[in-house]
Amino acid sequence: MASESRSTLPLALSGIALLVAGALAGLTYARTSGAAMDKAAVEQTVRDYILAHPEILPEAMENLQKKQASQQLGAVGGKLEQPFPGAVLGNPQGKVTLVEFTDYACGFCRKSVPDVEALIAANPDLRIVVRELPIIAPTSADAARWALAAAEQGKFPAFHKAMFVAGRTDMASIEAAAATAGLDLDRARRFAADPRTEAELRRNVEMARQLGIDGTPTWVVGDQLLAGAVGKETLAEAIGKVRGK
């Protein structure tokens, strides 16, 4: 996911350049139409301005991304921060909420586990709502269902950690992680097959679709949407922005 984010940057900057150019061209034309300034002159003026002020491109891209994220988050309302009962890390009553869309077959999600643990340790008021988004491996959905079963038994954090330690999502690894977390395995099997678990996964997939999320991990805090293994510092900065409002 992180590599995808980097690879799309030049394309995004090109799109921003076109948007800026279009806006500036329109403004320039409006201001100079009385002087019969031709199209070539307008385009040259816009080109010269962008070359003289290239710093406006990343700034414009950031503003556009913020606007798009805000619009997307508005589409899901407050549902995003309402966890499946028990599927929470950190302080369940925390004042600051970080939402993570995750998949147990995701290497970038596994890489982010120490970052999440460090954030929890440094922020006693942080609540992390984990949304299972099983999109990577054929067995991802099985792991996600058992994670919800662990949440139902009040043992989600232990199962969540054990699954990423295992690094696999085959049934043997899932049941081993469940045993490590102290789950009642028969009860977990029944709950994993419960229609409530499938309904929750469908909700998560639909929210991801509405937010334009197509990979894991993806993080949401306040009106900020961050894709990929962005690291502890970036997540801490995003959390700080929410706390500072």
What would the keywords be for this entry?
Glutaredoxin, elongated, five-stranded mixed sheet, 245 residues, alpha+beta, disordered N terminus
Please tell me about this protein's structure.
- Helix 2 packs across helix 4, helix 6 runs antiparallel to helix 7 and helix 7 packs across helix 8.
- This protein folds into two domains: 53 residues; 165 residues, 3-Layer(aba) Sandwich (Glutaredoxin).
- The chain starts with a helix and ends with a helix.
- A hairpin with a 2-residue loop joins strand 4 and strand 5.
- It has a five-stranded mixed sheet with strand order 1-3-2-4-5, with helices on both faces.
- With 245 residues, the chain is α+β, with helices and mostly antiparallel strands.
- The chain is elongated, with a radius of gyration of 23 Å.
